């Protein structure tokens, strides 16, 4: 019913979701991308955010999700972060694709084993960077490029600072910490394959890249000091358009009581509000670490063209 209401109100696509605990509906939401001008406002993201706020916790492990359609990768990431116990789905993504809602490009991105992003969007859709083509010619277009190693050494030291990163201190400096650290090294035993920005990739020089990365680190440090994240994790993100910072954010999962409040998602939400559009094409993002599954999905939906990262997930 929520999905139907969303369609009648012209809030977004025909998708609805509900979070239930012990037979009681905690939240019920529909897609509101068009209404709020926010590419993150999928039904599942909205329902999870509302449930977290209603229960006063980012942990929904005692809850279940009911959704009209198989979640996109962004929403699956939100399901994982919120620790939902079960998800009940109406139709799968292949059925949705038959009726014009094809998220294949996102699943292809997640399935990629290359370790870097740089996929192509294909299909009979208008190229939003050019005039609309009424003939609907097939479009091949970069969705997002991700580059690594901006101030890599500085960002690594930032993450290793246990006065800032309490997750590092809890996992590796307490009882049994050495064994845990050894296990992590076995899991992440291969050298991270960095993809630095190529010369001529855009009009931004390395000095500017480093300036924006320092800003992302400063935002993360402020959030960590204020205790906004779950364990003061040092994640920060900055969005820039035409050389102007339009949004900055840190991880606020703890302070917002919201499992979806990662630095990247918060920055995207802030940028769309400031610019008055859910389409952030032409913007670039600087983030202290590679985005997680949910945040990457949000980046793809927002059409951000490039991401510059300090470290990979396995630095």
SSE order and pairing:
Blueprint: H1 2-8, E1 16-21, E2 24-30, H2 33-36, H3 43-55, E3 64-69, H4 73-82, E4 86-91, H5 93-98, H6 104-111, E5 120-123, E6 139-142, E7 145-147, H7 152-160, H8 166-172, H9 177-187, H10 206-226, E8 236-241, E9 244-250, H11 253-256, H12 263-275, E10 283-289, H13 293-302, E11 306-311
Parallel strand pairs: 3-4, 7-11, 10-11
Antiparallel strand pairs: 1-2, 1-3, 5-6, 8-9, 8-10
Helix pairs in contact: 3-4, 4-13, 12-13
Descriptive notes:
The protein contains 13 helices and 11 strands. The protein has 315 residues and is α/β, with parallel strands linked by helices. The protein folds into 2 domains: 3-116, Cytidine Deaminase, domain 2, CATH 3.40.140; 145-177 and 203-311, Cytidine Deaminase, domain 2 (3-Layer(aba) Sandwich), CATH 3.40.140. Helix 3 runs parallel beside helix 4, helix 4 (73-82) packs antiparallel against helix 13 and helix 12 packs parallel to helix 13 (293-302). Residues 113-142 and 186-190 have low confidence and may be disordered. Residues 1-102, 207-315 form the CMP/dCMP-type deaminase domain.
